[in-house]
Fold these 2 entries.
Entry 1:
Amino acid sequence: MEHTTEHGSLGERAARVLDRNWTGTSTVPSRTLYPHQWSWDSAFIAIGLRHVAPLRAQTELETLLAAQWGDGRVPHIVFNPAVPSDAYFPGPAFWRSATAGRGAGAPAGVQTSGIVQPPVHALAAWLVHRADPRLSRARGFLSRVYPALAAWHRYLLHRRDLGGGGLVSVVHPWEQGMDNSPCWDAPLARVSPAPARAFRRRDLEHGAAGDRPTDLDYGRYVRLAADYRDGGYADGPCGRREFAVEDPSFNALLAASEHALAHIARELGAAGTARHARAERLTAALVERLWDPEAEMFFCRDLRASDSLDPRGPDGSRALVTEYGVSGLIPLILPALPREVAAALVRTARGPRFGLGGGVRLAPSYDLRGPAFDPHRYWRGPAWFNTNWLLERGLRLHGERAQAARLRAALLDVAAATDFAEYVDPYTGEGCGARGFGWTAALTLDLLD
Ligand code: 2M8
């Protein structure tokens, strides 16, 4: 498809979206639905911004890291004080970071949430540096962000290895980022929802109810977040959570970012060897704990389901949630993935569940044949640009050039046709959710480069 219209080239249109979403220090995912700074959105946005505004890309990451907590966590939302506090739910009055998070070292000068999101930031920082190394060196960009990124990874690896097997657990579906994925249905079913009268959703003022999570989902999100907050956002043994899941995508992104931290360390004159080794250990732990060779898929591990099971016995596998979410394909981004695992994942991506071999425009967020598949409901089927961008990278990394090129072309076509939609129907490419969405525009710029 030709990407130039009377409104300018696709790259110019994408850059204009990022200009409109820029607040002066960071970029909002959407002016309407998400009017603050989101953690993994900012990482993807920086990856695109680096091509058109490298200084802004560096600032994007620096702003986020300035809100880091003393214990190393990078909060999933940094609230913009200029936006009315009830514009988004749950807002600053719900999270109460400065008070409830004091024990965990929440910063005093900025209001944030208390949960995290996938650690894409070191990967983003490295890519941002490489786009303009002269500017980066002149500003000391890497030497400023490196300690914060190292502390962030340390927090995840030391405070969040709740299963004790070398992988990080998420304690809320919002942490993993694919909020209402069917992968969470079983672990969430144990959580008693907060009553609907206890909160007021704001998302439905900007998005169609049929494209968003249900009220029951929200009740459970609110319950989990409120319990975590009321426990002072503590993670250690006394902070035992009702929901604790090891997720393939979250851990794969941590391993990819650990490789990126190794590159950053080397650029700064240190040895990166230990970090590469850690990334490889994470990759090995992913395969050992989450890979199912018969299914040819990575699955989530529900730590609470395994509580009653002997983790060494054959029943330990029952703790795997055998739903095919796109999260299970994301480890394809890892260079140290065993060759046969990578080949099997490519088969799954091309097969009938994800359709990349034919049948869909973009890979869905969930199994096309799964019982819970819904082509329009948020993370229960629609195709998203960040996950497809990661798959494109993974396919290229493992030598699947033609498949990657087809996916890249489809991403650009769909982004152009939907005015940078938040997510799309995987079959038709019809846009859903917000338009002028931050990471869709940013990753378009990255693919165009
Ligand atoms: C969505 O999540 C937020 C909560 O964090 C929401 O639904 O209000 C998810 O798609 C998440 O992955 C994304 O980072 C966020 C902002 O784009 O929106």
Note: Confidence is low (pLDDT under 50) at residues 309-315.
Entry 2:
Amino acid sequence: MKITIFGTGYVGLVTGTCFAEVGNDVVCVDVDADKIERLNKGEVPIYEPGLEELVDRNRKAGRLRFTTDAKAGVEHGLFQFIAVGTPPDEDGSADLQYVLAVAGTIAEHMSDYKVVVDKSTVPVGTADKVRARIAEVLAKRGASLEFDVVSNPEFLKEGAAVNDFMKPDRIIVGTDNPRTTELLRALYAPFNRNHDRLIDMDIRSAELTKYAANAMLATKISFMNELANLADRLGADIEHVRIGIGSDPRIGYSFIYPGCGYGGSCFPKDVQALARTASEVGYDAQLLQSVEDVNLRQKEVLFAKIKQHFGDLAGRRIALWGLAFKPETDDMREAASRRLMEALWEAGATVAAFDPEAMEEASRIYGKRADLQLCSSAEQALEGADALAIVTEWSVFRSPDFAGMKQRLKQPVIFDGRNLYDPDRLAAQGFHYYAIGRPVQEPTSEGSSVRLATGA
Ligand code: UDX
């Protein structure tokens, strides 16, 4: 099948590449000439496991092409995917200008029937706007051409995006016309395996499903973070509580990890956008607002613990492990690391940071500054630091050489925003170990530890 994808960001690039991988003829269009040039050389601008290989293979097979030529793109595909960004406006609502610009471009150049598919996460009602924009441009051209608009939201997770696309839990198709459901069913047949995963519904419900999924997951995290803060104050251990509640299948073990706040390009943006949509229709979405507020507060918790331990932070040097918003990505959008570094800098401290993938991204965002040292290894970051803070749970941070760590750090103090270690073990090795929602232990050298009162 012939497919055109507008937008070569995370969603567009993964979608286009995976459609090509199953034998389709795919053209990806982007306005960023630089990016297209890099993609045409086989360079993938984002770090996503497995993606580069797939792009390379399909590009060489001639099934995956990249261009800035929108007209050629429109002519190519029966399916026209809109996968451009919807960044938050100042008020938190999603900015639709790029989505609607693509709709206009499609209408301008189309000469036969097209299925226009909204893949970007867009507010409820966007498909209507896309349809209206296409109709308006076609009318101006005096062209009477048929088209359909479909909502087909993407549920990929960064770091596992290729797998999520190739083996989806569900394929949501929102249509107002049964013929498009059948077209989308045929398009997704290679991914719709073992049992029928295609769920079709009306367009508005499909648009809302995407926000509902992200808001539910964000709610689970904020709920656990709230409980962790409570555990801190009550002298309970959130890790026991997590295992205790997760054993109930109605609750489940996934997405109930407390931490230093959720980040990324989806949760913060989508929770805000949904709350904004609610207020536009006169509904005060209190729970959504709280999910967002708890998350913003959670991004301050690690800093508060550091501040409480040291008092004055001026002149202190803090080693930071992890910059990306989660492991297996170099994405730092809304990452907990950013708020922590900024708070440390405001307090006069310096940061020595290491991340397995996000070093370039950090230097792109912050440039050269005296209070940020971007280190070439986790060990180098520790050298002469007053303490270590951890904000991303990369596997390589899970089992460090604690003895070596003690030698490199000026003081054996760890602030762990991801609850990676066993507090008893760390106390026994002589560390002051602060985690999220776990009792702080007094370090001992005898191999036993004493429980202290609560942390920050
Ligand atoms: C998310 C959704 O999972 C995906 O379905 C949607 O399409 C896009 O948004 P992503 O942003 O890639 O995907 O990351 P995800 O793995 O969901 O993690 C989001 C954030 O939540 C990360 O900062 C992560 O550290 C945090 N998180 C996750 C927790 O703090 N605790 C958890 O239990 C799970």
Note: The longest helix spans residues 203-234.
